[in-house]
Amino acid sequence: MILPSTPLFSLKGKRALVTGASSGIGQACAVAMAEAGASVVCAARGADRLTETVDAMIAKGWNAQALVLDQADLEALKSALQDPFDIIINSAGMARHMPALETLPTDFDEVMNVNLRSAYFLSAYAAQAMKVANTNGSIIHISSQMGHVGGIDRTVYCASKHALEGMVKSMAIEWGPLGIRINTICPTFIRTPLTKATLDDPVRSEWIKDKIKLGRMGEVEDIMGAALYLASDASSLVTGTHMIVDGGWTAG
């Protein structure tokens, strides 16, 4: 009898690009890729924190380099993706939390420009390079539980994430025959510098904990395993779907 063997989670020999890599979830995903053996290009808009991140990764003996990139600049984004990557993790994002009746067109446009428009073209540019190089790549977007439910004062953010989920499904259908996979990770509230103000508010914190059935806030480490799974051959039959890492929020 020949027993099946577990697919490899190793990323040795793979090239990965992680956007939003200077802090929070993006930084954690970059670490997960590098720790598994990938050569990682860490991209973000700000140079200082990005350099600190890459220096710390190199000090661990990992293969990492910094790329200062505003991915809303589509020409710069296209240039960065000319050479094919095996793995793309898009962790860049933004929010404008306010009632729908107070939302200005500029608020709407800023959120959609980063969360949807840049994500769309990042995916397309990356997939085109993968196609030319005949690379069976994996594209991963950090979406949100709010891509599956609604949220108070989060109408624009929810709209951008629901749209992202639909975009990924369509791209997966188109690129599946090319061997290119695309999926999302949908976290709940994760403790990062961007969520600190919300999570430090006792009223909001209690409301969030009540929604999360496991009774605790998310940490960036909670996302790293999902990212490694979707990036590796362990998920070679997974595309056009999402991994919800929300402690049971959306189940309720």
Could you name the key traits of this structure?
252 residues; 42% helix; Rossmann fold; alpha/beta; 7-stranded parallel β-sheet
Polypeptide structure, described:
This protein is of the alpha/beta class and 252 residues long. It has a single domain (15-192, 219-244), classed as NAD(P)-binding Rossmann-like Domain (Rossmann fold), CATH 3.40.50.720. 42% of the residues lie in helices and 14% in strands. The protein is built from eight helices and seven strands. It has helices spanning 24-35, 47-59, 74-80, 105-133, 155-175, 196-199, 202-211, 221-231; strands at 15-19, 39-44, 64-68, 87-90, 138-142, 181-187, 242-245. A seven-stranded parallel sheet has the order 3-2-1-4-5-6-7, with helices on both faces. Strand 4, helix 4 and strand 5 form a beta-alpha-beta unit. The protein is globular and about 50 Å long. The protein starts with 14 loop residues before the first strand and ends in a 7-residue tail after the last strand. The model has no long low-confidence stretch (mean pLDDT 95).
